[in-house]
């Protein structure tokens, strides 16, 4: 029995339940026993709201009511440090929760605690989910790195989010405003397919929240406060609307099963008894039924593992094929042949415009950019996410962009083709926040990438080596290439501010699919190939 199981597949994959039975769960009719929640994503209402703006609003409310903020990591907890009355982790959470139940505390930060605690009545009247939840175990972490941005990852994230949202309403008598905060979180929830993975009652509350908040869409944050007060002060009309929405929420028919995972469980069971032929067939069925490229590659890798028991040579061929779908997977023993990167033949502005054709409206564009900027953050964790975001940033700006080290196991973290046979060879050291200087190993890595580039590209091509690092001074034992440029904290902030301003300008004018307008804004914000190096990098020793 559970209230928040976005993916029923775990009952089959982990507990060997019968998929036919799991596909027909017993569900209560409607959701009338759930408490009153107003669920809003402020940065979806207005993408120009900053986390700092929302924090100020939340801190003001905390002067009167108990506010709980759930963050995914210790690092994110520091964002709230100066405003928090208490910060709770696994060591002190019990006492902290009791304080909330006893009376007014103010603002409480919970670190990576999305389930297992009850905050009824006035213990939590405003709940903030700040940032995407992190996964737990090592296996989950590896899987989520390989499947970043896929439906499977989205399902797991939404389950954690919904668990977190339930902390403040433990009975039908409770009420709580829930704010979903953060660029990446807003970006993921803004995807059309995300809504289907929430429970029926939560869907209804999300839709009601969107409907009520539509009257302040695009307006200042101050105008959002009266909307929140409808729930916080238990306005009669709001209460009735909320109850009607939940009671009349359309039922969810059937279970939510990932048939690929069911097939993989069947393959595993067959392999355990030595029936590798059956295991291969089941894994192949999963591959054939998959449309998402990253997932198809991930499933092919598992097909290759089963195939390796009876035909190692074919397994290597399958692994190479898997890699063509998902470059984060294991590399075949023989390695991978590298193909040279070229800049878009139609030019930067046309390529940038083509990239933005995926956005239906300006709001979608700014929400996506906010998520990208969230990923381009300094920190010891999330270095792979940073590199992936650098690749996306290059493509967004209209350059050729790839991750050679991920793609073939050698080369720089990122490579941008600016056009005119000019390139940026980029090493990302976003995690080096505690390093006093640029270390010898980091320097050698970039020097090695320079050598790699000269091996792969002929003399007609030129490149600028870029080190993304919070420091600009190299260790004495780490002599850098004289042409190295550095994107330090100041430069990265300047670059991201320009990217944000560029996206807002295009979104506001609704001209992000017009080549001439895009070209004008690229020049205006100094994001063309002729500006990138001089505007957003510095030399050794610069501030």
From TrEMBL:
Name of this chain's protein: ATP-dependent helicase C-terminal domain-containing protein
Coiled coil ranges: none
Top-level lineage group: Bacteria
Organism expressing this protein natively: Nitrincola nitratireducens
Gene Ontology BP terms: nucleobase-containing compound metabolic process
A GO MF label: nucleic acid binding
InterPro entries (UniProt xref): ATP-dep_Helicase_C, P-loop_NTPase
Organism lineage: Bacteria, Pseudomonadati, Pseudomonadota, Gammaproteobacteria, Oceanospirillales
One Pfam family linked to the record: Helicase_C_2
Domain ATP-dependent helicase C-terminal stretches: 66-187
């Amino acid at each position: 029995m559970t209230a928040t199981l976005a993916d029923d597949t775990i009952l089959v994959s982990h507990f060997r339940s019968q998929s036919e039975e799991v596909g027909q769960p017993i569900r209560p009719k409607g959701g009338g026993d759930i408490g009153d929640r107003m669920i809003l994503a402020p940065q979806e209402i207005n993408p120009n709201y900053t986390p700092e703006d929302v924090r100020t609003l939340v801190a003001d409310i905390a002067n009167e009511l108990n506010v709980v903020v759930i963050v995914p990591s210790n690092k994110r907890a520091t964002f709230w440090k100066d405003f928090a009355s208490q910060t709770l982790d696994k060591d002190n959470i019990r006492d902290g929760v009791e304080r909330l139940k006893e009376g007014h505390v103010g603002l409480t930060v919970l670190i990576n605690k999305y389930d297992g605690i009850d905050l009824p009545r006035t213990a939590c009247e405003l709940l903030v989910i700040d940032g995407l939840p992190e996964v737990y175990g090592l296996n989950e972490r590896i899987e989520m790195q390989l499947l970043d941005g896929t439906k499977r990852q989205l399902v797991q994230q939404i389950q954690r989010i919904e668990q977190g949202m339930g902390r403040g309403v433990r009975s039908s008598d409770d009420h709580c405003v829930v704010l979903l905060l953060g660029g990446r979180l807003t970006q993921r929830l803004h995807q059309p397919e995300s809504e289907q993975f929430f429970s029926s009652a939560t869907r209804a509350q999300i839709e009601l929240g969107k409907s009520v908040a539509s009257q302040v869409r695009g307006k200042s944050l101050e105008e959002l406060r009266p909307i929140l007060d409808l729930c916080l002060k238990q306005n009669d009309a709001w209460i009735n609307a909320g109850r009607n929405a939940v009671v009349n929420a359309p039922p969810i028919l059937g279970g939510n099963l990932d048939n690929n995972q069911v097939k993989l469980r069947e393959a595993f069971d067959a392999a355990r008894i030595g029936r590798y032929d059956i295991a291969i067939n089941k894994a192949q069925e999963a591959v054939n039924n998959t449309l998402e490229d990253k997932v198809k590659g991930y499933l092919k890798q598992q097909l290759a593992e089963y195939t390796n028991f009876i035909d190692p040579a074919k397994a290597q061929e399958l692994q190479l094929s898997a890699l063509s779908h998902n470059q984060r997977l294991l590399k075949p023993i023989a390695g991978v042949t590298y193909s040279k990167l070229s800049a878009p033949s139609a030019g930067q502005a046309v390529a940038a415009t083509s990239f933005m054709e995926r956005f239906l409206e300006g709001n979608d564009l700014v929400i996506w950019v906010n998520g990208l900027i969230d990923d381009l953050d300094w920190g010891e964790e999330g270095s792979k996410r940073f590199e992936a975001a650098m690749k996306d940033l290059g493509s967004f700006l209209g350059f050729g962009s790839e991750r050679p080290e991920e793609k073939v196991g050698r080369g720089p973290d990122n490579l941008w083709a600016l056009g005119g046979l000019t390139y940026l060879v980029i090493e990302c050291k976003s995690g080096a926040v505690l390093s006093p200087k640029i270390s010898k190993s980091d320097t050698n890595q970039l020097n090695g990438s320079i050598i790699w580039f000269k091996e792969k590209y002929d003399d007609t091509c030129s490149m600028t080596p870029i080190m993304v690092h919070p420091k600009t001074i190299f260790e004495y034992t780490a002599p850098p290439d004289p042409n190295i440029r550095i994107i330090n904290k100041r430069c990265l902030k300047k670059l991201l501010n320009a990217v944000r301003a560029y996206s807002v300008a295009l979104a506001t004018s609704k001209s992000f699919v017009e080549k001439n307008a895009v070209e004008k804004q690229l020049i205006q914000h100094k994001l063309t190939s002729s500006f990138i190096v001089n505007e957003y990098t510095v030399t050794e020793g610069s501030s």
